[in-house]
Amino acid sequence: MNDFLLEYYNNITFSVEILAAIIGLILYKKYSLTAAKFFIWFLVYLALCDFLGSYVHYIEDSFLSFLEGTRLVRNFWWSTLFWKIGAILFFAFYYYRVLAKKKFKRVILYSGYLFLTFSVIYILYNWDDYFIRFFPVLDVLGAIIIFLCTVFYFVEVLQSDRILSFYKSLNFYISAAIFIWWLIITPLVFYDIYHSEMDWNFIFLKWQIYLFANIVMYLTFTFALIWCKPEND
């Protein structure tokens, strides 16, 4: 299993990302008049950014060898920028479009602005660490925003007639998938100090958890795009 993870972890993760993005683009016309079109572009964004983040594999004895010895030799900075900050801001934007209650929308809007402001200040204050590690505080704050978005959505569904057909809603599957993903992954950030070549048992366990969570999340997105019908926002 460990040899399998070493060989195919990135390929499997990237494959399910690409699958969700391609299905989204194929069905784009189906959702073009709803907020779901932004989610489809977000899937494309994730696949593209993850692909660009793989540049680290081409540094040692390859065409990007000129990056050897620079701050860019590891991609912590890129993952923090495109996922730990970018993804959170997208979902704040997306649920601002999806939610109906004005008080919920205001909470999400202000939370997104505060998160962005705090992230910029925190990174500037810890500029050197930005290139060598992740920041647990950003993961926790990002998870709080994700939980706010999804809980607000579930509350609105429970308080409306949409509860009768929730299983046909793309936004329901998106909300369930990201809620579960962040619930599983967020606690792992507190154990990043063990992520070193001296503790491969932890590294393999972390990879297994991430791989399982990623497969479930992206396959849920893929299924939902195919199964669900467009909703009027």
Summary, kept brief:
The chain has 233 residues and is an all-alpha fold. It has helices at residues 2-26, 28-31, 36-53, 76-98, 102-125, 136-158, 170-185, 200-227.
Molecular structure report:
It is a single chain. The protein is an all-alpha fold. It has one domain (2-227). The chain is 69% helix and 0% strand. The protein is built from eight helices and no strands. The chain is globular, with a radius of gyration of 19 Å. The model has no long low-confidence stretch (mean pLDDT 90).
Output the keywords.
single chain; 233 residues; 8 helices
pLDDT averaged over residues: 90
- State the separation between the terminal residues, measured CA to CA: 45 Å
Whole-angstrom Rg: 19 Å
Please work out how many helical segments DSSP would assign: 8
Number of strands: 0
Give the SSE layout.
Elements: H1 2-26, H2 28-31, H3 36-53, H4 76-98, H5 102-125, H6 136-158, H7 170-185, H8 200-227
